[in-house]
Amino acid sequence: MMRHFFRQPGRRLASIFAVLLFAMSAVMGSYVYSACQKASADYTTLISDIVLAQQATPQLRAALEEGSRLPSSEHIEYIEYFISLSKQHLNNIKSSIERHRYLISDVEYLNHHFSELNSRLSDLDQQAQEAQQRPERIDPLQSVAMEIGSAQSWLYNQLLEDVRDISVQQRLVMQRLSIAVSVLLVLMVSAAITLCLAVIYLHRQRNVMHQLMLTDELTGLYNRRHLVNVASAALTQAQRAQAPLSLLLLDLDHFKQINDTYGHPTGDEVLRQVSKQLRELSRPADTLARIGGEEFCLLMPNTATHDALQAADRLRREIEVNTLRGIDLHANPTISIGVTTCQNGSLTFEQLYSLADKALYQAKALGRNRVESVLPPNAPLPCSGPNAYAHTLIREPSDS
Length: 400
What we know:
five-stranded mixed sheet; 66% helix; disordered C terminus
């Protein structure tokens, strides 16, 4: 019977076609599965780790320069903190790479650079610890840190370039897959569905990456997400070092009236120029972020309440007296500031933010253009003793 079945030309041709169809479907299915695995790889965390690591490098250089000018155990603690942060970023990137099996082979040539950079950071950390006893050794650390910074920049830029190349390969895979699906549409209905899901997934991941960008588009300051990440690390460091950490909330007074009177473009320009002034008046170790429409936050590690209040009043006075360029306002904008301090890293960021917000509300209620503070229960009152950390705010030239 089977012999009779295969003797018929039409059925024999159908059988051959069915076998070929099955074989082509199996090959195409395997290709589609592999292609979709590569195309749907999520590099969001890896890119975020690389960007964060790139930002830690100039912070380490700034800490070394500041420690060279004013050598003290406190500045050396800054240096050790940023060295530790650089090593942490390096380990995070290495862990992220190991989670991507399609990426490991492409960046395997960088393993030696990872090991060497980690070793050099450990040596730099050891030298910084030795500088605790002999502060004059901070100067030689700068040249070593410059070399390490250059090596970090090269490594991180190379990683970003490799990830971009892989993204290009992903797009090429998708193009080839689309052609294959178009040619074998009848055979690959399931592959077409998988392709659509992969495209949707990639589109969503692109939106997530956009939301994870570290800076505010209008002002160029850090955004709230980055502030929360930095605050978490700073609180951990404050708890480890038993050091104070202050948080300032700054809000432009009557900003709605500026928008209503002069228009939103003028309001945006006011925000840009005020942000620039705040950035120039902030210390290199501080983190300044825009967290709302006209609301800003300044995180000040190793800063007691007394020094934070002095810094806040300095910011308030500078904003009040500095005339904005190219904007004809009836009067200079003013800011209200709420200040709080966490002793020994004993609070969470949310608790710190809540206390600073209460202080800001008090400043608004008492007439605006002023500084108020709300401290945690049982916190020591601000004092101005000889050991207070009276660090002068540093003006830095703006890149913009």
